[in-house]
# Entry
Amino acid sequence: MASDDSYLRSLSSLSCGLLDGLCQAEDDEEFSAEEQLPEPEEEAPESDEEDFAPRVVKPVSTPTPKKRVAVSRDAIETFKEHLRKGLAVTKHCSNGKTKPRVLFCDDACMKLGWQQPNGTPAKNTDLLPLRSVVEIRAGVEVDKQGSREDPKGRTLMGTPTLRKCIDGTSARRVFSFIFRDRTLDLEFSTEEECRRNLRLFKVLVAEASK
# Structure
């Protein structure tokens, strides 16, 4: 069991540099709410009459574009190979408990499953079709439905499962596959690994949905 777990962690670590080099931002990248461009300013029109009052400077309301990251075909194919062999993750359960698991896909990379680190099948052996994924939501993204239904009027993040067992320090290392009847909530070892896998899984879901 220890050797299998060590191998998976080593494989995950070795693949990080390669995948990061293949996933690059485009030159004309856009920016998200966390990386906003400074808003342009609009000065009041000049007047022929002398005016000693301070000029009014009004910010121009512009939509905040989202950051667009290009994912190369090589990065996607490399990720698929790693996923077929298995990715070491921490699975968050609806009862608030966490379990070390190995996330894997079928040969066509159209379905997801998980097993114990030693290769023993997990309790749930059903593979989940990627085409059935409604949303992939980061742990720091708003749960819109949950926020609307919250009796205290709070803005809720992540999923009900994640809210039971994560705190602010781990929220950026998790994301969830949202299905119509369940969620699959996963935590990765680093924020960087989580962001990269989130990006790549979104590509796989888009491909599976075609």
In short: The radius of gyration is 22 Å. The longest strand covers residues 98-105.
